[in-house]
Amino acid sequence: MSDLVFIWAVYLLAQFADVATTRAALRGGLVEANPLMARLMGLTGNWWAVKFGVALAAGILLTWLGQERWIMLLAAITGGVAVNNWRLLRKERERR
Asked: Membrane as a keyword (predicted)?
């Protein structure tokens, strides 16, 4: 597997994990902490599609510019957000 394929696989996995854990957290009674995403969620029921679209556009632009290391940084940040979402959801479930 080439480096670029691996980078994109990690990046997309992080995006999916973020959306999945955000959706689970919202169903579990938590709220979106990011004011920009909260506003987007209020404007459209398909916030996750917009998020994927923006992430895809950013990844394509960074690939085109030859900045794959920035894609990995975004993947790490997004993966961290997904882990935090999961941690908060688990904490909320234990509290109940």
From this structure: yes
